[in-house]
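Note to self: keep these together.
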Amino acid sequence: MADRSFGDVSLAALYDALNPWGASDDFYLDLVMSARSVLDVGCGTGRLLGRAREAGHRGRLCGLDPAAAMLVRARRRAPCEWVLGDLACVRWEREFDLVVMSGHTFQVLLGDDELRTALASVRAALADGGRFVFETRNPAARAWERWTPEHPREAIDAQGEVVRVWHKVETPVAGERVTFTETFEHPAWERPAVSRSTLRFLGQDALATFLTAAGLTVDKQYGDWERGPLTPASPEIITVARPGLGLT
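Structure:
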């Protein structure tokens, strides 16, 4: 689950263990390997770009993340560009064939103005014919209803210790934003670490409206990582967008 809590050094060290490589990573890796220049927004520990470099990508790979602790780990992983910041404080001009936001990073853009600023920055960064690919959880699937303490996750850290993490949603949930706490428990810690996050769940029509206003056009949308059709029951809204006409 993508959120900003992993800016903490101890939690950043656990990120990859709690979020093992899966179908979504394979989906994005395939895209990265087919592009000459890639910007990974919210790159985290640099796993995606690092894997691409290991697989033989020789083009430009640039990762952007607001958490310094995550970038410390990314810089150890692979020789790519690692930039501290977010889309509100950096700007590239038509430099990337592909911009990606994986790990549900798109959902941390909570306000309309924040979202517009981010999309404008993405649009500016895309070269002619480039693609912007991201995913957001389908609000119709109501994934947050399963984010309860009764459904914890466990992972093994580098020292072989078991880490447990669970979520609790603040109710009632109203509108597009879901606020929840995320609790991390580790045997070596005196007490659990607790973070509070909010994610925004935008539907298909709202996404299209924001993208269009930013000069981006929806090219394809999928409902799962096997590129299945988007339906009301789909867990994801995976969007491939391209620069549209009239805006630069």
